[in-house]
Amino acid sequence: MGPDGLNYYTIKKREPVSQFSIDYQEALNAAQYEVATSLQGPLLVVAGAGSGKTRTLIYRLARLIESGIPPENILLLTFTRKAAQEMLKRAALLMDDRCEKIAGGTFHSVANQILRKHGGLIGLDPSFTILDRPDSEEVIQLLRHTLGLSEKKRRFPKKGTILEMISASRNRNLPLEEIVFSGYEHFSHELESLARLKELYAQYKEQKQLADYDDLLVKWLELMKRFPEVRDQLGRLYKYIMVDEYQDTNVLQSEIVKALAFTHRHLMAVGDDAQSIYSFRGASFQNMFDFSRDFPESRLLTLRENYRSHQKILDLANQVIEQAALKHEKTLTSRKKEGPLPVLVQAPDENLQSRFICQKILELREEGIPLEEIAVLFRSSYHSFDLEVELAKYNIPFQKMGGMKFVETAHIKDVLAYLRVVQNPKDAVGWSRILLLLDGIGVKTGQRIIQILLNAGNLSEGLEQMGQEKEKPLRPLFSLIEAIEPLAPPDQIARVIDYYFPILREKYDDYPKRLKDIEHLKTLSERHRSLDLFLADIMLHPPDENFPVFGPTDPQVGAKMTGEKEDERMVLSTIHSAKGLEWQAVFIIWLLDGKFPSIHSIEKGEELEEERRLFYVAVTRAKEKLFLSYPINIYDHRTGTVLSKPSRFLDSIPPEFLEEWTLVPEEGPASF
DNA sequence: TGTAGAATCGTTTTT
DNA sequence: CGATTCTACA
Fold this sequence. Notes:
Strand content: 5-15%
Largest sheet: 8 strands, mixed
């Protein structure tokens, strides 16, 4: 108001339209809009399945950048590499390639980058080697024997189990004792040895500059705790933090996030407690509930509307999660009211279940659903074995996710081991692997040689100390290591192949196939600037190209299906690997008590709850068509053929939610 | 050191 | 049953 009491002007808030090039209000629903435009301070988003979470996150990234935040100050933490890449790509599409400068990846990959840079402060060389699970198990095995724990007076846990216990203790930030007493009581009499083993394992890794998956998180957190100036530096760099799949973070990860956001508090966490399926790995969906305690000033927003599936699928999903003991109430609704009722298929046996699926897939394809839009999901990797055989007979190309990983095959690990010792000469695990490939060198000699190498500091000196007779077979190996040191990764692999091929041919009958894998590894390495980056990348995100891949690229395959696109493939996946994905048509197989839910979880309340959430995740992957199936007669190794019991998850579903089909075997000779 | 055969287990999911 | 682990022997 002016001094004369009249209005000279009115204040009008500037419309966002003029400030931003993207029309956020148009592109998002009200709740999504709120999420995408609430940029300051802590924010927890509970996002139901298929609620356009990814879309919202992408718009939020764009919004941040449009508001003038430099992209390198934004950190996007996701559960898989794929998720991060996908989001950044889509954000770049929405805006421009500034989005590609956003820092993003899994907790583990970001930890890796930070530790390469600052790890020296806590005793970690920039050249440290990342151990995958088999590597870690090998170390445990070795230490177990040096401790003399292999005599069989009392039963002692196997290496895998030992590692599980140690890992659980670290991931949950609980003393080993508590882990053993709560989940492994039958080994409580070995507690002392286990504790000792845990200690030795840590020591071993430290001496040899090795880090397992847990170390990446533990050390990152340790770094920030012990060096607040590093924490603050990281906080200044990552000014805006977004964490996806928050329900699947563990205590360490939430601590890390809290430390990063300690000063600026611009932290957004997105998750869905109903989809928490990784507690076996230490994830604690309690983090979702603790958020408002850790950040009292935080806001809570919920995304409820589902854009993926039609209502009949959601009705079923809601019914499944309705039974859950603890949850955020969150009933999913869709605007798509109509669609085919989900089908429950009862098959006489496993093979007919498989054949039904093959035939149905062909039908769906005739209806115009591309193969990439079809997926078969299951609880455990081996549940699809029979189906894989059947798909091959029907000439249906597929891609299997989960299961055996490319980098975990022996020949790939062998080749990588040569590169590893080049990068980190202290990598005893790598050394051990390549030394044992030599004739006449076993565990004992191998360990002795490694010891000498570690003391000597460099190869030629070590060689001299070795003594005449042992020296001979080592010479070619050492000259290989020395020769490839200055080369780029693809050339290094080429040289390794020259050296390794005779060993490969000797060791495996199927060596041509394995050689092809190694060539593939070489191709992969071309994408990386340095050995460090290549090795870290391959250990942290194993390539998706898993085997067995069956399809048009395989020359043995006969006629293609009509109108097939070159790389069109349907998907086989564990439910865990299917998280976050969606398909037009989804089959969930092996819905039997003891299979899904798994036999292991049936007696344990919490684990059964997790299986239920897993089922919920599976159901909510389907956009249009959903088939649930189980075989009646299953073959059990011990008892022969037995009558099976349908999954208890089906019990609580009223009949009107499902259409029920029963497969009747055809008369006459089978088609195969 | 390397292998063959016996004993003994225990079954997921993944960065 | 199949993978892993241990033992016995060349």
